[in-house]
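A reminder from the course coordinator: this example appears on the midterm review sheet, so study it carefully.

Given structure:
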């Protein structure tokens, strides 16, 4: 039976290595930033923002500053993602010299996180509508369904709040009407964050 146990363990180890290489192959071609263009855009926006008359038009100034923040965020993502790939490559090289399950697990965790971030980034590339990058206002109404509907409305509020917070967005409650026995009758929330509107625009029902 020992040989069978050894075979299973060895097969499982090989499968984990193959999956890790697959993850690495999946994420590498997806980092497709045009870094020179981003750096040039960042320089142009910083030069515009440094002009003495920049804040004479507050609305346009805020728009320009948002664009600058977005470019900086894209560059930070690029640095972080490249670092994750370099770490994974190094871990694999070290693993080949001295197999270490903990090292393999750490590299796998880092690439899984990177994969999730890249999937979200790819989704954001599809959100090209006029208001997709903006924040969103969301209203939930229990209607005439009684206590059960009010409980469900409160559950929806918690769900959207958790989703926003997990995605680094801020939730502001503008209006809240509590239920007589439990739950809520209605609520209106404002979700502040990039692409909040794009992700939530189809949440209707």
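Designed residues:
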């Amino acid at each position: 039976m020992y040989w069978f146990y050894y075979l299973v363990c060895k097969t499982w180890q090989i499968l984990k290595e193959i999956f890790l290489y697959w993850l690495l192959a999946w994420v590498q071609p997806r980092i497709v930033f045009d870094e020179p263009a981003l750096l040039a855009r960042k320089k142009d926006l910083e030069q515009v923002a440094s002009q003495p008359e920049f804040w004479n038009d507050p609305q346009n100034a805020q728009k320009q500053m948002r664009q600058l923040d977005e470019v900086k965020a894209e560059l930070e993502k690029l640095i972080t993602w490249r670092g994750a790939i370099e770490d994974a490559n190094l871990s694999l090289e070290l693993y080949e010299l001295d197999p270490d399950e903990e090292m393999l697990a750490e590299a796998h965790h880092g690439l899984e996180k990177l994969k999730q971030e890249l999937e979200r980034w790819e989704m954001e590339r599809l959100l090209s509508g006029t208001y997709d990058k903006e924040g969103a206002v969301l209203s939930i109404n229990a209607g005439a369904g009684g206590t059960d509907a009010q409980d469900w409305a409160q559950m929806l509020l918690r769900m959207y709040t958790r989703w926003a917070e997990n995605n680094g967005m801020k939730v502001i409650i503008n209006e809240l009407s509590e239920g007589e026995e439990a739950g809520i009758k209605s609520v209106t929330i404002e979700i502040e964050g990039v692409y909040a509107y794009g992700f939530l625009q189809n949440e209707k029902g």
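The first helix runs from residue 2 to 27. Residues 30 and 71 are 18 Å apart (CA to CA).
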